[in-house]
């Protein structure tokens, strides 16, 4: 956009927040002036900074990325948690590989002044950066602000942005202006609300320390801890964090002297950092060090009228997680985004105070929840590393060493992917496998009340299923007829005696005898509706069994409630899929409850190529044999008995093939880390199972239309489920009709909820309401099984493509 002569932004503080904002404004043609209290722009004050993916991404947009990487020299390759003796009890040795693969950027450490110098060098109008100019007072007017400095200068601007740290003069001036104009704006308790529980000596050492390059160590102790990142060249950074004994607020928070620092250093002189390195080794080689309290807080109001605070002046972090400087960059980017957008929308006139307030309000609204969450996260981690309670000590000693890395890396999604960036500058293509939220169609959102509604709906469906299936069997006399048939050894449709032994295992044979007794009348009935309905039912189940198997073998579902399709198969074969399916669907939504679940890696199904053969051998062939007109009654019963574990066989055959053929092939691959190419096989599964279910549906529909003896109503709609039945075949027919209808209803709700999940994850613009009509049409034209397969085909495509904007 062209330079805005009407807008002038006065920035108090040449900090990371201040200079990054100045660079952002300059790139967008907005006038600015930076007032820096120090005589040098980048003084050496003994501080280091960790720049993380959320901060590096913004620096990349500002063309600073290459310089940051060059000056930091070593990304964090390995992370260690160490005990009080310096021995590692947990390590993450491929840290850089994982964080870069997922989020596109490494984590690096270097001097804070180095980053400030990089930002300063990128600013073209260096005459607009004034040093030795400390803001003394700020006065806001209806059309502008006036700033006075310690040198006697009076400067007018459109807005003032306070990037002047935790002890911000601009914030105090903002409060004074607010108290005069609107005393209710600032909570009076905030002046003494700032809390500090910990204090820290942070420093830079050179030469002697033997810290491995590219490492970051956290050393756990009771009521104190160390953070030791390696730096560029021969530098080592270190943080000694100690609990001050209680949480102090506001004016209670002390300012420490060098004598205070030396006293604390003596207390920790012999602390082990590693088995071969003591704290004294670091301190003796220090270049600089500072002892300071560590306040941590997010202020309730970041702005008033034409005054805004950013960075530490608005939100202060513990240093442990390194989010202070990175979130300063984020808030600068958010402010720049909203300000530039407002200037573009009002190109023909100056921004009014109301419009400026709207810019500030949007900035705080966008950033406040995220900063609070990260501040609290940092505090909780500091308490853990200081083992502040017996419980935290137990967790640190016995739980943390066994925590899988996957739990940590999955949490990075909220830490990094949810970050703000500049929306008027394109982001670089860095190959991140997890999209940043602003690369999606929309930011992922929690299900909210929808989660509870889904659990309630599926629970109600399961209760109804229990009532219509088990309850009806008892009430209408079907179970009595089953018992009678087993006792007499005679079943409708069977010319011979009922078989009593199939496997030789008494407990299994008893179950198989019951199931054979139930299935025989449905398959052998003289009423054509009964075998036709069962064949249609089992064909409709084929895509669902395929989906259950796919989800069970999907990488991200490992060790979850849906990771064992065979177990679920046993349950729905014994209790009816109309009862078990709602429970499975509820479990699947519990597994995917996090808003970022669909964004996480692990969509791949390594066993995908073996699922279709398993479906053919384990389900399709046994189902075809089930309806083959065997004349021998014993053979017929054994085929029915052999069909019963069909869903379990699908999972077992998949496992067997994947761990024999698949394992053998993998061992012969020259590139074992090659990505799983499963989409061809998954598409084939959805297409084949969907076409089979659709063909059966069309066959049945056409057959009912042309055959005067069979009606759709009699085929699918049960009569009074609790009325006394005359024959076992009638009772079984009602059971399968109810089972199918309940299964279909649960599948439709599950499918629609999955569409809603993809929408809320920001991967699609397709809303569940718009799909409802297509699903209803699909149920009529191609049937429930094929409709579910088609929707899952679409879902798989959306998850696999994930094209980021």
UniProtKB/TrEMBL annotation:
Transmembrane region(s): 452-473, 502-522, 534-550, 570-590, 610-630, 642-664, 685-710, 740-759, 771-794
Key word Transmembrane present: yes
Entry's Gene Ontology cellular component terms: membrane
Localization per record: Membrane
Stored InterPro entries: FAD-bd (IPR002938), FAD/NAD-bd_sf (IPR036188), FAD_mOase_fung (IPR050562)
Keywords, sorted A to Z: FAD, Flavoprotein, Membrane, Oxidoreductase, Transmembrane, Transmembrane helix
FAD-binding domain location: 6-351
Pfam families, per the entry: FAD_binding_3
Single GO molecular function: monooxygenase activity
Similarity field: Belongs to the paxM FAD-dependent monooxygenase family.
The protein, known as: FAD-binding domain-containing protein
